[in-house]
Amino acid sequence: xxxxxxxxxxxxxxxxxxxxLSATVACSSSTSGHGKGGRVHLAFIYSTTxxxxxxxxxxxxxxxxxxxxxxxxxxxxxxxxxxxxxxxxFQAATRTSTDGIAMETLNPDLFVRPLKQASDAKxxxxxxxxxxxxxxxxxxxxxxxxTELGRSLATxxxxxxxxxxxxxxxxxxxxxxxALLGQRLDGMKQVIQAERPTLTVLGPFxxxxxxxxxxxxxxxxxKAHPNAVAYLGAGASDAVxxxxxxxxxxxxxxxxxxxxxxxxxxAVKNGYAAALASPEHWxxxxxxxxxxxxxxxTGQALPxxxxxxxxxxxxxxxxxxxxxxxxxxxxxxxWFAAEVKKQLADPAQYLKPMNQAN
Length: 358
Description:
Layout: H1 4-24, E1 40-45, H2 52-68, E2 71-76, H3 83-96, E3 100-103, H4 112-120, E4 125-128, E5 140-142, H5 146-157, E6 167-173, H6 179-195, E7 199-206, H7 211-224, E8 230-233, H8 238-249, E9 255-258, H9 262-269, E10 275-278, H10 281-298, E11 305-307, E12 312-314, H11 319-325, H12 329-345, E13 351-352
Helix pairs in contact: 1-2, 1-12, 2-10, 5-6, 7-8, 9-11, 10-12
């Protein structure tokens, strides 16, 4: 449980956040929106309820809806990654959440037609985490730079690898073909090849997305490359799986991965993983819902382009702070309060053209 001092700080920060968003979505007599003067009906549609990245985005969306005060939020996702099921949920939301939808998907190609249907029905859509597919009218994408995320993780990992070291670095890709994970891995390769050219980068190999599959595939990869200098993953399950393999074998690996999954954080805390690169998914969910609520309540146009919400390296220096941050929805909200205020106050600082998203 949070200490009384920490609890008071949470309440103060959450109060600031609510005040900022309430001001952001206050109704204007000179503009019009679907929700003007009444309840706003919004939705967050995402890939799966089973994995940390998507749970984090949902927590952020829920917090923004609560702070807006006039939002009825529907959150929908399949229990496991299932593109067609998510499409059905999105299409249902276009009929019930007509004031706006924030959408995250791992199957963007399946959404070309559904997004056109939403546009034809004049339902505003904001893409979250995954850039919208080409040929759609979605004009706002909320997401971090995944190339930079990969570069920052590799930069942290090579601190543990002396210059001139030889050997293999094994890369794993949870969802081969998904552009954002490919960008993370490209960023990792760029840094390793430039800063530690004596290392041999292998992969990326398919490491599987669902936890059990991910563990089995990493187990096979470790057996095939038992003396690798480092094992790096692009997704949420990789550090969790590799930490378990370390425990099972009694061997110590140099491990880096992405996303602040609770078990991955514990792996850093216990020394089984050197670092995690967090895309700060909570912030993406919050910003997307806050902007949709503002648009619906005031009629103010949605920003256009790629809104880069940023990322964070988690290591032994800040692991205790991040574990504390991740302990509850309230502690997440308190942690991000100042950053939310800063970003919503100056959108231009965070926006770039959509085609620059990386």
